[in-house]
Amino acid sequence: MKCEHCTRKECSKKSKTDDQENVSTDSSSPAQEKEEASKHLSLCRPNVRPYCTAKFDLQTTETSMSLCPAGVHYVFDTTIAADFSILETQKEFVRRYHRHSEEQRELPMLTSACPGWVRYAERVLGPPVIPHLCTAKSPQQVMGSLVKDYFARKQNLSPEKIFHVVVAPCYDKKLEALREGLSTTLNGARGTDCVLTSGEIAQIMEQSDLSVKDTAVDTLFGDVKEAAVRRHDGVSSDGHLAHVFRHAARELFGEHVEEITYRALRNKDFHEVTLEKNGEVLLRFAAAYGFRNIQNMILKLRKGKFPYHFVEVLACPRGCLNGRGQAQTEDGHTDRALLQQMEGIYSGIPVRPPESSAHVQELYQEWLEGTESPKVQEVLHTTYQSLEPRTDGLDIKW
Ligand code: SF4
């Protein structure tokens, strides 16, 4: 089966091979047919769903985009991958909090789910900042392992039989997918073969006779469909700040936080959240979105005047919904009306805490050999390093 709109060389080769193989499928066994039918996958991130819902006038957020007409066999939701990313971030924060001292500066911990920010940290800021980056992999990286390792084994497929496409809100996710180590699975496969932005998906749809339909998404667990769409807490992000804050308050101070109160400080892209008791600030978290706020944060970090324990850092002002791959007008500005519509849709999606997913708990046991096993470290964590700027034009100019 052809994935007609993919421009990757590997994909066109695969398409050709598929056609050749399809000629001979008359004599193939049911197992081979199953293998053939499982080559192309795609998935939708929670923060691209509002774009698709708005763009294609889908009716509710309880459903998701299906790309089946384009030769895609499964559509997954990445919320399960974000669950792992958040849970590992929570645990790492608590560990760092305990280890932190004047001599061993483990805090603030800075999130690492945004490739735009991580590339900037690695290429421009270097060693003073890199040790502060959380080592938990991003949802896209975790999803690569779930698909090419867990799902492949469940389906009796070798990873190279799977072509894994991610639909993302920004172009930075393409660079993240190319990164060796970050995006390589335990079996040595590339976790993500291709990233298309949601804007590119819309373009493909508009330029072809393909259509999008409301349908339940697949799960990694056999024929079961995803019961309902859920998102994590937070303002147009994967929700690391809110979930880590609640977990840390509970684990470190025995405090159960229901509602999180964000205080906008310098501007609406710099928020603060604190946990206070008897007039003392126990935890001070922040969200810093956009490079103006990131640069201010770095300036204060360098001066040793940065009072936060944890910062959710995102390169785009207003977060992932405002990613350049989906919320831009043709002249390169933010489409404010569309963004506002997406924010409304996003906030209407019910929140599900990552701890409450029974599938995630099962996967920790069945796939990762426990919540604290060496395999968890290998599959769900990574390392960062200072990198030289690229000379092939693929790097982003800040
Ligand atoms: S903040 Fe922007 S660059 Fe970072 S992951 Fe989200 S959309 Fe991509």
Automatic annotation (TrEMBL):
Basic and acidic residues composition-biased segments: 1-19
Stretches for region Disordered: 1-41
Residue ranges of domain Iron hydrogenase small subunit in the record: 332-388
Protein name, UniProt field: Nuclear prelamin A recognition factor
Biased composition (Polar residues): 22-31
InterPro entries: Cytosolic_Fe-S_CAF, Fe_hydrogenase, Fe_hydrogenase_lsu_C, Fe_hydrogenase_ssu
PANTHER family associated with the record: NITRATE, FORMATE, IRON DEHYDROGENASE
Membership in a protein family: Belongs to the NARF family.
Organism: Microtus ochrogaster
